């Protein structure tokens, strides 16, 4: 499993990148608004993220256009920011049509706000490079987000979509709307290719009380060694 950071916060991205386990970044309009982002600085901000993570890490930038032609125009401009920009498009009819066009032009798409198997299958057929089933938002409405993710992983895994994607690349499933380290564990066990996680979850993924207790004991014992 690869890890993407789900944020628009440059300090978080820099810190996570320094840990050596960051494979990409996903942003969305809410995450950009949360850091006080301005419309006229959006493309520059995506460029800053691309510069931090480097050319091998895909950076998803979301289009908020609502018609296929506008999404395609938006997507082409986003793709010009850097070669590793992935255009994030919501799962809807206009989004599918735009994905089909962008994929045909060699521009990778991350199909977002995906909740069901039929949505994921349509995204795959349209040519999405990444599909982002949301886990936490299902949990928020008292449904089982992990079960839904498992269904998507299983259904997508049943078929070969390489003929639909840019350069015949394998579709990757991004477990999105991740709220806990256990979400990551379960997503990895069911074979999701990527988890996009908020920085708070990434930090929790490192921690375990037994690690802390063990470290504490080692440090205390080392003091004894130093004073012996
Ligand atoms: C996915 O790429 C989205 O940006 C994100 O995972 C949404 O998460 P949320 O439901 O916590 O807002």
Summarize the structure in words.
The protein contains eleven helices and eight strands. With 228 residues, the chain is α/β, with parallel strands linked by helices. Strands 1-2-3-4-5-6-7-8 form an eight-stranded parallel β-barrel, surrounded by eight helices. Helix 9 (181-189) links the parallel strand 7 and strand 8. Helix 6 (117-126) crosses helix 8. It is globular, with a radius of gyration of 19 Å. The structure holds erythose-4-phosphate. The site of erythose-4-phosphate has 11 residues, from helix 7. Erythose-4-phosphate is lined by residues 6, 26, 28, 112, 132, 134, 136-137, 176-177, 196.
What is the CATH-assigned architecture?
Alpha-Beta Barrel
Label the overall shape.
Answer: globular
Hetero groups in this structure are:
erythose-4-phosphate
Number of helices: 11
How are helices and strands ordered from N to C? EHEHHEHEHEHEHHEHEHH
Please identify the oligomeric state: single chain
Spatial order of the strands forming the largest sheet = 1-2-3-4-5-6-7-8
Could you describe the largest sheet, including whether it forms a barrel?
Answer: 8 strands, parallel, barrel
In total, the number of strands is: 8
The averaged pLDDT comes out at 97
CATH topology: TIM Barrel
Estimate nothing, just give the exact number of structural domains.
1
The top level CATH class name: Alpha Beta
Helical proportion? 40-55%
Low-confidence stretches: none
End-to-end Cα distance: 45 Å
